[in-house]
């Protein structure tokens, strides 16, 4: 096959003075020279739970450069990287299947992968070294579509359903794999109590493994089994901006959203798009008379989820009636272990949104 000299092409295009910057970027796109056919992710069935429960970062594994980041310090966790690859794939191929002796555990893994990416084709080979996997399942499938790939993650679909259907309940469990959506639009989280609750992530284990324990006691941590959690939080000390929550196994990250709550923007500063968004919220009954569009919504995906326990545990971190009665002005004085109250009000001078990674 003839090789393509991309560097020579780039030099030739840059010498063409008639090209605008945008046109040059478009021409330099790889899609003009080759078609991305299929995104295939290989998942180690024997060690998938070990990876999900790992807190190691790419820098600690010394593999940052292998995934396109030349920075000396790369704080992305290997669990996060693995989930990103699973959620973006067209095909998920399980490896080392022959080494997994418990077939129920294998079905649990398959169901978990399908829940994380409902649009993907999950292949579980029956022979070692993928001997029985047809090449037609991997090559020249024409499956890749960037727009679809960017919205294929299971958590995205659950949040979209929850936003459009107030009474949406995630689908029936398969092999103990399920999801749930937590909502709270009446009151925000207390930052200190939320920090305590979020510290509960970190005891992930397979539902199969939990069922095989001989101690006869259920795991005390209600977040045991949560593999993925994504969404946004309304935190009292960050009253102006949604706080994005990202959970990948034991890795918990919080970050201020780039956009403030609409209710935190003075109405005289609203652009046409803001007015349209407000009308949509009003029509859907999603605009609170006092709090506007402020609220929390998070989807949890995992193995053997204690849905009632998760709901109750998060509920303990919400402001109490007494704290609500003190009014919004009092919330600024709350100790904020995440962002030190930086997002209590919406300021134009705020720098790029910060994020924090919770440590055990």
List keywords for this structure.
360 residues, alpha+beta, Rossmann fold, Hypothetical Protein Yjia, Chain: A,domain 2, 6-stranded antiparallel beta sheet, 3-stranded parallel beta sheet, CobW-like_C
Could you tell me the mean pLDDT? 80
Q: Uncertain segments of ≥5 residues (pLDDT<50)?
A: 12-17, 206-219
> How many strands in all?
9
Corresponding CATH superfamily of the largest domain:
CobW-like, C-terminal domain
Beta-strand portion reads 5-15%
| Silhouette | globular
How far the N terminus sits from the C terminus, by CA atoms, comes to 51 Å
The biggest beta sheet is recorded as: 6 strands, antiparallel
User: Class by helix and strand content?
Assistant: alpha+beta
Give the count of structural domains. Answer: 2
Strand order in space, largest sheet: 4-8-5-6-7-9
Indicate the CATH class of the largest domain: Alpha Beta
Radius of gyration over C-alpha positions, nearest whole angstrom: 23 Å
- CATH architectural label of the largest domain: 2-Layer Sandwich
CATH fold-level name of the largest domain = Hypothetical Protein Yjia, Chain: A,domain 2
* Structure annotation, total helices: 13
Helical content (DSSP H or I, runs of 4+): 25-40%
Written as H for each helix and E for each strand, in order along the chain, the element string is HHEHHHEHEHHEHHEEEHEHHE
Describe this structure in words.
Belongs to the SIMIBI class G3E GTPase family. ZNG1 subfamily. InterPro entries: CobW-likC_sf, CobW-like_C, CobW/HypB/UreG_nucleotide-bd, P-loop_NTPase, Zn_Chap_cDPG_Synth. It catalyses: GTP + H2O = GDP + phosphate + H(+). This protein has 360 residues and is α+β, with helices and mostly antiparallel strands. The chain has two domains: 34-149, Rossmann fold, CATH 3.40.50; 154-358, Hypothetical Protein Yjia, Chain: A,domain 2, CATH 3.30.1220. Helix content is 29%, strand content 15%. It contains 13 helices and nine strands. It has helices at residues 6-15, 21-27, 48-52, 58-61, 78-88, 103-116, 146-149, 154-164, 191-198, 207-212, 272-283, 307-315, 321-325, and strands at 40-44, 91-95, 121-123, 177-184, 226-233, 243-248, 251-256, 296-303, 355-358. The strands form two sheets. It has a six-stranded antiparallel sheet with strand order 4-8-5-6-7-9, with helices on both faces. Strands 1-2-3 form a three-stranded parallel sheet, covered by helices on one side. Strand 2, helix 6 and strand 3 (121-123) form a beta-alpha-beta unit. It is globular and about 65 Å long. Mean pLDDT is 80; it is low at 12-17 and 206-219.
